[in-house]
Design a protein that fits this description.
This protein has 251 residues and is α/β, with parallel strands linked by helices. Helices cover 43% and strands 16% of the residues. Helix 1 runs parallel beside helix 2 (44-53), helix 3 packs parallel to helix 5 and helix 5 runs parallel beside helix 6 (156-176).
Length: 251
């Protein structure tokens, strides 16, 4: 069963590329009206164009998730455009430098935590406020990572940010369940995104380490997000859905 999201509005951060863009496009294809949020330098217009070409509805909103005021304004704009906020996907994230902890620049630590953890905190604050105001409840998915469970070496800030994101998700889920707001996390495995390619990784070499013998496409993650947002997951909150092709099964 493929659930329709017709009549619902959704805000997606990090929607200019990768998992965020794929999620925005999939949800729009199922009827949701999408607020495509990202940095001014992100190709937000490309995502909107894909959605509109397919007959969907989307608006691009520039915002830096690491700045609380900008994220609040983005949510306010989405509510003004669509009348309410029913769904949200917090996919904005950065990888940071690859280095040992004692060599990691404080500025890099602050930048990664500011986007990956504080950025989701800022987003959740604004999204939950909008959902509470509507009285209709809602559903939110935060994009974490399998590295929260099985960290890579030399990725201290990234791992800490994603581990913290799981905790943030669980506390928020517990606190707002009585208001009909479900909050879950999706932890992607190795996915073919600009972030992965920027690290110089070769997809064919990486695929050999994944039990299903391929790396994921952003659409694989988008389908998992859609499930968590949908009524089919209506009894699921505070959960972490791992979508990794069996990667965490490796010794």
């Amino acid at each position: 069963m493929t659930q329709s999201f017709a009549g619902q509005s959704c805000l997606v951060t990090g929607a200019g590329s990768g998992i965020g863009a794929a999620t925005a496009e999939l949800l729009a294809g199922r009827g949701a009206r999408i607020a495509v949020v990202g940095l001014p330098t992100d190709p937000l217009g490309d995502t909107v164009a894909v959605i509109e070409k397919a007959g969907g509805t989307a608006v691009a909103i520039s915002a830096d998730v690491s700045v609380a005021g900008e994220m609040q304004r983005a949510v306010d704009r989405a509510v003004a455009e669509f009348g309410s906020l029913d769904l949200a996907v917090n996919a904005a994230g950065i990888s940071g430098d690859e280095c040992l902890l004692h060599e990691e620049p404080v500025a890099d630590w602050n930048r990664v935590l500011g986007t990956n953890l504080s950025g989701v905190f800022h987003a959740l604050r604004a999204e939950i406020r909008a959902m509470l105001a509507s009285g209709r409840g809602g559903s939110v998915v935060n994009i974490a990572s399998v590295q929260a469970t099985n960290p890579l070496s030399r990725r201290t800030a990234y791992t800490a940010s994603k581990f913290g994101l799981i905790g943030l998700t669980k506390v928020a889920a517990k606190d707002y369940a009585e208001h009909g707001i479900r909050i879950n996390a999706l932890s992607p495995g190795i996915t073919d995104t600009p972030m992965m390619r920027a690290g110089g990784a070769q997809s064919d070499q990486i695929a050999a380490f994944v039990p299903v013998m391929r790396i994921a496409q952003p659409a694989d993650m988008a389908r998992g997000v859609a499930y968590l947002l949908s009524d089919e997951a209506g009894y699921v909150t505070g959960a972490e859905l791992v979508v990794d092709g069996g990667l965490l099964l490796r010794p």
